[in-house]
Specification:
The protein is of the alpha/beta class. The protein is built from 2 helices and 3 strands. It starts with a strand and ends in an 8-residue tail after the last helix.
């Protein structure tokens, strides 16, 4: 799982996600983190999360991803 900030310097999160998708051998969960997320701009992400991301919210996301992967389901959680 990779949590990407959309507003990265030099290469934005959208470009990096596209590069990862083009070069991955197996599916990697990519999740966008931004203060200005448009859920309609899905691009290459499995989920979108608004800033600020609290420790409790991150723990909840990771727990859901773990549960879904153990059951063989899609790991996308919102």
């Amino acid at each position: 799982m990779i949590l990407l900030d959309i507003g990265l310097p030099d290469m934005d999160g959208y470009s990096l996600a596209s590069w990862i998708r083009d070069n991955e051998n197996t599916h990697i969960g990519l999740f966008a983190l931004s203060a200005h997320i448009d859920a309609n701009e899905n691009h290459e992400f499995d989920g979108f999360y608004p800033k600020p991301l609290t420790q409790n919210k991150l723990d909840d996301i990771l727990r859901k991803i773990d549960e879904r992967s153990r059951m063989g389901r899609n790991t996308c959680v919102n």
